[in-house]
Specification:
14 helices; 3-stranded antiparallel beta sheet; binds pyridoxal-5'-phosphate; 7-stranded mixed beta sheet; transferase; about 40% helix; Aspartate Aminotransferase, domain 2; 12 strands; AspAT/PAT-like; 2 domains; globular; alpha/beta; single chain; aminotransferase; about 400 residues; Aspartate Aminotransferase, domain 1; pyridoxal phosphate binding
C-alpha cells in the first residue's frame, strides 16, 4: 500500500512559497538577494489592530470560539459588506476561517464531487487549481492573455461552461496580474452566468481595497443582484490591513453552503484564532484611513516598476488597476542567452537565471498558468525596487 494518497499526487506545492524559500536560503548563505516574490504588504499591522489583540489577550479571550466566527466579527463583516459593497447579509450567512485560503478550501471541499468542473481564468492565483484537485474536482482553465489585459471575455466564459460546471472562480483585482474588471466588464460575465443557472460563483475579493487611479472595485452579487443566491463572496483582512500572519478570512453566501463549510471546519481546525478574530473586528470597525495612505505608496511603486520594466527591450508591462503585482511578458526575450550562458527557453528558466545571476527573486508565469511572463510583487521598499529593476535591466541588456 502506498503511504501517500492518490489525491495528493495530483497536487503540487505552492510555487510562490517555493520562490520565497529559495530566496531566503540564498540570503542566509550570504547572497545579496532582493525578493520580489512575496504576496504580502511590507507595512506593519496598524497599531489600533494590534492594541485590540493585546486587549483581547488581557481580557482572557483566549479560548475556543464558535466554529465559524464570534458574533461580534460576523456583525462587523455584515456591516462591511453593506458599507463597501451594498450587500445585505445576516450573520448566519457568514463564515470566518483561518485566512481566505481556508474559506476557499472549505467551500470547494463542501461542494465538489468527482467529475464536477471549476472554471479558473488564467493567469490564476496558484492555489485555485490545486485546491480544486484536492477537493476531487476538475479545474478548467481559460486563458486570458496580455492582449486582453488578462481579463476573461464573456465569449470565453460561455464556451467554458458545460453541464458539469459547478463553480466559476473570479478574482479581481487579480493575483498575479493586478488586473481589475470594470463594472461593464463584470456585467458582461454575469449576463452569461444568468443564462446558466447551475453555475455558482466564488468571487475572491481579497484585493478589493487595493484599487488605484480611477478604477472602481465591484463584485458579482453587487453588479447582478439576481446572482446573490448563487454567489459566495470571499474576502479577508490579510492584504488591506497588512494582517497576513493573523490568518483571518471570511465569506458570505447562501446559508446552506455556509453551514456545510462550518461542518468541514468543525472537523478540521475548529475555529480561527480567537485573538485574531478580535483584531479583525477592530480592522473592519475601526478607522480605514491608512488604506488610502498605503495605496499612495503602492501606486508610486507600481508606476516606478512599470516604467522601468517597460523601458526594457523584449518586455511588455501593462499598468494594472490594483493589488501589488505586475505581470510583464518576456515574449521578446525567449530564445536569447544570458551572460552566464543560460538559454532563456521559457519563463521558469528566465526566473531561475535572474535569481542566480542577479539575486532578484520573481515568480515565473507558468506557476500561474500563463506564459511567458513573470510576476513582480512591488510590496517592498522603493530602494529595493529601484535596485531590482536596475539588475533586471542589466540582465536583459546582456542577453544575446
Ligand atoms: C487572490 C488571493 N486569494 C486568497 C489569498 C489568501 O489569503 P489569506 O492569506 O487570507 O489566506 C491570497 C493570498 O496570497 C490571494 O492572493
Amino acid at each position: 500500500m502506498e503511504l501517500l494518497s492518490r489525491t495528493l499526487a495530483r497536487v503540487k506545492p505552492s510555487p510562490t512559497i517555493a520562490v520565497t524559500t529559495k530566496a531566503q536560503e540564498l540570503k542566509a548563505a550570504g547572497r545579496d538577494v532582493i525578493g520580489l516574490g512575496a504576496g504580502e504588504p511590507d507595512f506593519d499591522t496598524p497599531q489600533n489592530i494590534k492594541d485590540a489583540a493585546v486587549a483581547a489577550i488581557a481580557a482572557g479571550k483566549t479560548k475556543y470560539t464558535a466554529v465559524d466566527g464570534i458574533p461580534e466579527l460576523k456583525q462587523a463583516i455584515c456591516a462591511k459588506f453593506k458599507r463597501d459593497n451594498g450587500l445585505e447579509y445576516t450573520p448566519a450567512q457568514v463564515s470566518v476561517s483561518t485566512g481566505g485560503k481556508q474559506v476557499l478550501y472549505n467551500a470547494l471541499m463542501a461542494t465538489l464531487n468527482p467529475g464536477e468542473e471549476v472554471i479558473v481564468p488564467a493567469p490564476y492565483w496558484v492555489s485555485y487549481p490545486d485546491m480544486v484537485l484536492l477537493a476531487g474536482g476538475t479545474p478548467v482553465t481559460v486563458e486570458a492573455g496580455i492582449e486582453q489585459n488578462f481579463k476573461m471575455s464573456a465569449a470565453q466564459l460561455e464556451a467554458a461552461i458545460t453541464p458539469n460546471t459547478k463553480w466559476l472562480i473570479f478574482n479581481s483585482p487579480s493575483n498575479p496580474t493586478g488586473a481589475g474588471y470594470s463594472w461593464d466588464e463584470l456585467k458582461a460575465l454575469t449576463d452569461v452566468l444568468l443564462r446558466h443557472p447551475h453555475v455558482m460563483i466564488m468571487t475572491d475579493d481579497m484585493y478589493e481595497h487595493l484599487a488605484y487611479d480611477d478604477f472602481k472595485f465591484c463584485t458579482p452579487a453587487q453588479v447582478e443582484p439576481a446572482l446573490y443566491d448563487r454567489t459566495l463572496t470571499v474576502n479577508g483582512v490579510s492584504k488591506a490591513y497588512a494582517m497576513t500572519g493573523w490568518r483571518i478570512g471570511y465569506a458570505a453566501g447562501p446559508e446552506k453552503l455556509i453551514g456545510a463549510m462550518r461542518k468541514i471546519q468543525s472537523q478540521s481546525t475548529s475555529n480561527p484564532c480567537s485573538i485574531s478574530q478580535w483584531a479583525a473586528v477592530e480592522a473592519l470597525n475601526g478607522t480605514q484611513d491608512y488604506i488610502a495612505t498605503n495605496n499612495e505608496t503602492f501606486v508610486r511603486r507600481r508606476n516606478l516598476v512599470v516604467k522601468a520594466l517597460s523601458a526594457i527591450d523584449g518586455i511588455t508591462c501593462p499598468v494594472p488597476e490594483g493589488a501589488f503585482y505586475v505581470y510583464p511578458s518576456i515574449a521578446g526575450l525567449i530564445g536569447k542567452t544570458s551572460a552566464a550562458g543560460t538559454k532563456i527557453e521559457n519563463d521558469e528558466i528566465f526566473a531561475t537565471a535572474l535569481l542566480e545571476e542577479t539575486g532578484v527573486a520573481v515568480v515565473f508565469g507558468a506557476a500561474f498558468g500563463l506564459s511567458p511572463n513573470f510576476r513582480v510583487s512591488y510590496a517592498t521598499s522603493d530602494e529595493n525596487l529601484v535596485e531590482a529593476c536596475k539588475r533586471i535591466t542589466e540582465f536583459c541588456a546582456a542577453l544575446k
